[in-house]
Write a structure and sequence with these properties.
six-stranded mixed sheet; 2 domains; Aminopeptidase; 11 helices
């Protein structure tokens, strides 16, 4: 039997940062909660846009007990029960989750795509972590230190962080979170946020905003760099971020989102190579969504297509749609 719970206190279980109430509250102004069974916890938000209400999962399922012989069918059954409860949240459909939310399986009747995320195991020693870096990464990290690149951290750097982040998103023609939303998130999460900016000659080169929690993971959700950062500055920033996370008792560093089959020679392939060279391992699984209200879901997709045409953009759908199209080629 699944229950929908609206208070973290009622959940009564230690949760990762992306399942915490202060995180859920910071990313929606409408509704949030947790689907809870005897075995699993699954946090969600409901976004309201125009007349659509879409439910989004913010975290992988949290297991309430450790399974000695874990069977994916148990998680799939849980998902199917979740789908039957969605109408109680007022949501019209289950939308694509964040790209860090890589599930082990998916429910029958959903729209799914294989996806992954590169994660670094921070339980290794610092020496082993450095040795696991690709030689080129090690070399540019050492060189950037010698050349005076400095990584600073703290909320006081928010303005520097946001300018670099915003410029990066605009340059890449990507949607991005507003300054007020990220400020609110940073203040709401407090000690569970790390803002970092790499400087060379007092000029910002790159930035990151990590969300993390001791005993769980850290997530590189927001960040970027200037158009031509000093060689090694971004590498050094991520390396120092990893060391800071390790000191804080975080168990993995998640670069957030990786395509299983990036286009050869494309930008995505180069970016994923950069992530992999930190000694990270690809965690593979699935992103999935579900049209619980088929009419509203089709209308949502149709309006998204029309909006893209109005703005003279090619409509590519979400990441799940893009991955499914690539796999069909």
């Amino acid at each position: 039997m699944i229950k929908i719970i609206s208070s973290e206190e009622e959940v009564g279980f230690l949760l990762p940062v992306t399942a915490q109430e202060n995180y859920l509250k910071s990313i929606t102004n409408y509704k949030y909660g947790w689907f809870v069974s005897s075995d699993f916890i699954l946090p969600f938000i409901v976004e309201r846009k125009l007349f659509f209400k879409r439910l989004i999962f913010t975290c992988e399922v949290v297991k309430k007990i450790e399974f000695n012989d874990f069977n994916f069918s148990k998680e799939r059954l849980f998902f199917e029960e979740v789908i039957n409860k969605v109408k109680e949240t007022s949501a019209h459909f289950i939308h694509q989750p964040n790209t860090n939310v890589v599930f082990n399986t998916f429910p029958i009747g959903s729209i799914e795509a294989k996806f992954g995320s590169y994660q670094v195991d921070l339980l290794k020693t610092e020496e082993d972590l450095f040795l696991s870096l690709h030689q080129k990464h090690r070399n540019v990290i050492r060189k950037s230190k010698r050349d005076g690149v400095i990584v600073k951290t703290g909320y006081t750097l928010f303005s520097d962080f946001f300018k670099v982040y915003q410029d990066t998103m605009v340059r890449q023609n990507l949607n991005y979170s507003s300054e007020s939303d990220l400020k609110k998130m940073s203040l709401d999460l407090g000690d569970n946020v790390l803002i970092s900016v790499a400087f060379k000659d007092e000029k910002p080169q790159g930035c990151s905003m990590l969300l993390f929690k001791k005993g769980f993971g850290s997530y590189y959700f927001y960040g970027g760099s200037i158009s031509s950062p000093y060689t090694g500055a971004i590498n050094l920033m991520h390396w120092e971020n990893m060391m800071t996370m390790k000191e804080k008792g975080v168990i993995f560093y998640d670069f957030v989102g990786a395509r299983i089959r990036p286009i050869k020679g494309g930008k995505t392939e180069g970016l994923q190579r950069f992530k992999k060279r930190f000694g990270s391992e690809m965690k593979e699984g699935y992103l999935w969504k579900h049209a619980t209200n088929k009419i509203m879901y089709r209308l949502f997709c149709m309006l998204a297509y029309i909006n893209a045409r109005i703005h003279r953009r090619i409509y590519t759908g979400d990441i799940i749609d893009q991955e499914r199209e690539l796999n069909e080629k």
